[in-house]
What does this fold into?
Amino acid sequence: MYSQAKVIAGGLAHIPVVIAVFYFILTTFNKRALKFVEEAKTKKTEAKNVEPQKVTVLKTEAPKTEAPKTEAPKTEAPKVVKKKHADVPVNIYRPKTPYEGTVIENYSLLKEGAIGRVNHITFDLADSDPFLNYVEGQSIGIMPAGEDANGKPHKLRLYSIASTRHGDNFNGKTVSLCVRQLQYEKDGETINGVCSTYLCDIKPGDKVKITGPVGKEMLLPDEEDANIVMLATGTGIAPMRAYLRRMFEATEKEKNNWNFKGKAWLFMGAPKSANLLYEEDLQRYLTDNPDNFKYTKAISREQQNTKGGRMYIQDRVLESANELFNMIEDEKTHIYLCGLKGMEPGIDEAMTKAAEEKGLNWSELRPQLKKAGRWHVETY
It folds into this structure.
C-alpha cells in the first residue's frame, strides 16, 4: 500500500511529463493548421488563375454552335423576307373582340351554265377602330351568325382576301372576298357548308363579325422586277386577283408608287369556262400588258390533255415545263399556289417531271425555294 504522501509526490512528479505532451500536441496542431491555411490560399490563387482559362475556352467554343448559320447561305433568305414584312398587320381583331363590318355588295361571279355557286362579297371597314388594315396575300376570319348543334357559336372560317389594301373602289376602306358555297353529299342528302352558305346569302346592309387579318405566307415581294408564277384553282384566284390588281391597275400603281416590271404568269384551273372568275379583268390585263402578263387556263370538262383525259392545271404545267423552269431558275421568281388541298399532289408530280426535263431534282429544289422565301402555298 502506498502512503498518501507517496501518491501525491508521484502525481507531482508526472506533471512536467503531462505538460510536455500537451505542448507537443498543441505545437503539432498549430503547424498543421498553418499548413492548411497556406494550402487553402494556394488553391484560391490557382483557382483565380484557372478561371480565365475556362472563360476563354467557352468564348472560343461558342462560334462552333453558330457556324451552321453562317456556313449555310440558303438559310439566310427567310430572315430577309421576315425583315421586309415586319410591319405587316396581324390580328387587329380577334374572335373574342371581332369587328362588325357592314356588307356593301354581294353578287355572283359565275356565268350561265356554271357549276356551283361563287360570290364576290365586299365589307365596309370605315368604322373599324383600330382600323382593320391589311396587305395583299393575307386572310380574314368570318364568324357566321347562329349556333351549332350543341348550342355554341359557330367557329370562324378563314378566307383569302381578294382585294388590294386599297379595296375595290380604291378608297382604302373596304375588303373583298371570293367565296364558293361548299356542298357535299352525305347519306343521300346534300349538305351545305355553314359559313360559305352564310356568306353567299348575306345582303347589303347586313352586319358580319370579322377577325384578322392573318398570314404572311402569301405576301408579294417588294422588288418591282420580281417574277410571279401563280397556280390557282377555283376560289384560289382570290389572292392572285389582289396581286394582279396591284400590278396592273393604273390607280393602284399611282397609290402604291410601285411599278411592276417583272413577268406575271397565271395558271388557272376551272371545270367549265362559265366558272372562270374575274375573266373580264384578266383579259384586260392581257391586252394592256402583253409583255408582263401571261394567262394559261386549264378547263377540265372542256379541254383534253395530251393523253386524251381531262385537262388539269398540272397538265398545263407539264406543257410549259421548259419556259416555267427557266423562270424558276431565276432568283427573282416567286411561285404561289392557292386552292383546294387536293391540287397539291398533282402539282408536285407535274413539277417533278418538269424539273427532270431540265435535269433538276424537284424534291431537292422545292425545299430550297421554300427556305429562300420563293415558294408560297395556301391550300384548304
